[in-house]
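ARCHIVE CARD
Drawer: 12
Card no.: 0347
Subject: one protein chain, sequence and derived structure
Cross-reference: see card 0346
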Amino acid sequence: MKVLVAYKSKTGNTRKVAETIYGEINDDKEIKPIDQVDSIEGYDIAFLGFPIEKEGPSKQAAQFLKKLCVSGRKVALFITHAAQEDSLDLPPMLAKFEEAARGANVVAMFDCQGELARAVKLIMSLMPNVKYRRWAKLDNSQGQPDQTRIERARVFSRDVMRRLHEEEDHVKSLAEYLKEPAVA
């Protein structure tokens, strides 16, 4: 199985998760920044990672997802954000990534908290939007992703690969079964 791990990272959070996912894969694999990827053709699965920006994928991230996520391709998304994972604000933001990747078969999605950059937090605290000022004030993302979240990324990677290998083995078994002559 050939696997690509590609990511966009501004502060290092998404890169850290990408490297963790990559480290758990025992197949033919490649890791690179998303802007170095022209196509995911030739890969059995692509793990694609992005940070949340402005409540969803950045315009560039959405364009990459729409370009890369075409019919017949399997992708697993991994998303980093400053919100706590149980935040009610988070599901609609994550849904925007799935929507941008809808052309492909999205087999799994992982998200975890990453540290909000100080400069971004300062900007958010000064914005006229009350919601952003509240988020900046409530920010508790320092030191994220921590070891617990990194371990969750490891488990995510192993689970995705295990399911793909099981699917591949099932297809091979079925193909062998269909080749066998009928016994009368």
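Annotation on reverse: Helices lie at 13-23, 59-68, 90-100, 118-126, 130-138, 147-179. DSSP finds six helices and five strands in the chain.
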